[in-house]
Design brief:
Layout: E1 2-9, H1 20-45, E2 67-79, E3 104-111, E4 120-125, E5 139-146, E6 152-159, H2 162-207, H3 212-232, H4 236-262, H5 271-279, H6 285-296, H7 298-318, H8 324-353, H9 355-362, H10 368-373, H11 375-405, E7 417-425
Antiparallel strand pairs: 1-7, 2-3, 2-5, 3-4, 5-6
Length: 426
């Protein structure tokens, strides 16, 4: 009699993953809880949409919003100052003034939009430093003001930048989508969502006098949920990056508050903050400064945490038998290089934004200590320090979270399959 035995083996090609399932449930549960808290915070802090008076520098003569129209330069020439037709609506070309005292520059402007479209106006500039140098054919924006008697006057507002900016934005979008494909497109959608959160929620909430830290944290968390999941998809990898970023963001908020308090930063050294303090009395300038610190740390934190989470999961997928500790240490080596390259990028970016001020200080014969401790420079130093510390701490945080979630070697079990038949004679 012959007995035929079917012999099969079940092989586990890669090591076990004892923490993965439980850790995944904990991380997902935390992110859901934080998401619910963010929605509740947004509902609690939602701006009242109350009407706010237009600040004086942005008012027209009647107290309303400044109206701008399109125009282009027809001619530009030297002329005597004080022409009576400057700013008026012209239907005929103005007569040139005869004078040897031609210290001003007059530009004839064609009005291309608004109720006086098709007419011209005359603009006059002193020709000194900071005055626009208008060339024939240039497109500009002009303000239109109607006084109580019904007289309309125009004045120079700014250069027309709509089409150059649209061209740059389109080029940016095309390059990102061409290189990153669908993921690049989703990243662009995330940028739109981020700006919508800032414009619809954060700025109105701060304008209403909302507490800076809760408003900034809620807005930042909402942006992170949208940007990370939109750009990188919903997975344990992106969830690890999101949780690491949210944790680092909380640290950045605490560090920002401590930096502002310890260095006695008021924010009043910046012209825009002074305007806010003058015309929006219910807005806290230090709170605005604090919110700027928190929002400013988002981009660099997101970059580092996503990279670290991806590194951990890629190392785990290689399947070379590494333990979680080995994967963590390998990813940290990458993270240290990332910290080293990103920290000086962060510092140089802030130094670049303060370059005009540093140039003025360099010729003011002030000591280096005075320059570095002046509030305007101290704000940039504090921003760099807060961003750098949060960046450095986000690397081990995210790496540890991802290492717990990732399965070393992928942990895939191969189903049992027959490998042959063996006949045993009896």
């Amino acid at each position: 009699m012959r007995v035929t035995h079917s012999h099969a083996h079940s092989h586990t090609l890669r090591g076990p993953s004892p923490f993965g399932p439980l850790a995944a449930k904990i991380v997902v549960g935390l992110l859901i809880a934080i998401g619910v808290a963010v929605l509740a915070g947004a509902a609690w802090l939602w701006p009242s949409q109350q009407k706010v008076d237009i600040p004086l520098p942005f008012q027209n003569a009647a107290g309303g919003a400044v109206t701008t129209e399109a125009g282009h330069v027809l001619s530009s020439s030297a002329a005597a100052c004080g022409d009576q037709s400057v700013g008026g609506v012209l239907t005929t070309e103005p007569k040139p003034t005869q004078s040897d005292d031609a210290h001003c520059v007059q530009s004839l402007i064609a009005i291309d939009s608004g109720p006086n479209e098709g007419a011209n106006t005359l603009l006059e500039f002193g020709g000194g430093a900071g005055q626009p140098q208008l060339a024939v054919g240039e497109n500009i924006r002009i303000t239109r003001v109607v006084d109580p008697t019904g007289t309309t006057t125009y004045s120079f507002y700014d250069y027309e930048r709509k089409w150059p900016l649209i061209a740059m934005a389109v080029a940016f979008a095309v390059v990102v989508v061409a290189v990153a494909r669908w993921r690049g497109f989703r990243a662009l959608v995330g940028i739109i969502v981020a700006f919508a959160v800032l414009v619809v929620f954060m700025l109105p909430a701060l304008r209403d006098g909302g507490a800076a830290i809760p408003v900034a944290l809620v807005a930042s968390a909402a942006i992170l949920y949208a940007v990370i999941y939109l750009a990188h998809g919903v997975s344990l990898r992106t969830s690890a990056a999101l949780l690491g970023t949210l944790t680092a963001l909380l640290l950045a908020a605490g560090l920002s508050w401590a930096a502002i308090e310890l260095a006695h930063l008021t924010g009043l050294s910046e012209e825009e903050n002074n305007a806010v303090a003058t015309y929006l009395g219910n807005v806290s300038i230090t709170g605005l400064l604090l919110a700027g610190f928190i929002i400013g740390s988002l981009g660099v934190l997101n970059d580092v945490t996503v990279t670290q989470a991806s590194t951990v999961f890629e190392l785990a997928e290689v399947g070379d038998g590494s333990s979680r500790r080995g994967i963590f240490l390998g990813a940290m080596r990458v993270g240290r290089d990332h910290i080293a390259s990103t920290v000086y990028t962060l510092v140089l970016a802030y130094a670049g934004s303060a370059l005009p001020l540093l140039l003025l200080f360099s010729v003011a014969n002030r000591s280096l200590g005075d320059v570095l401790t002046s509030e305007t420079v101290a704000i940039e130093i504090a921003r760099s320090a807060v961003g750098g510390i949060a960046l450095a701490l986000s690397v081990p945080l995210t790496t540890a979270i991802a290492a717990v979630l990732a399965k070393p070697g992928g942990t895939t079990d191969v189903p049992a399959a027959p490998t042959g038949r063996r006949r045993i004679p009896t």
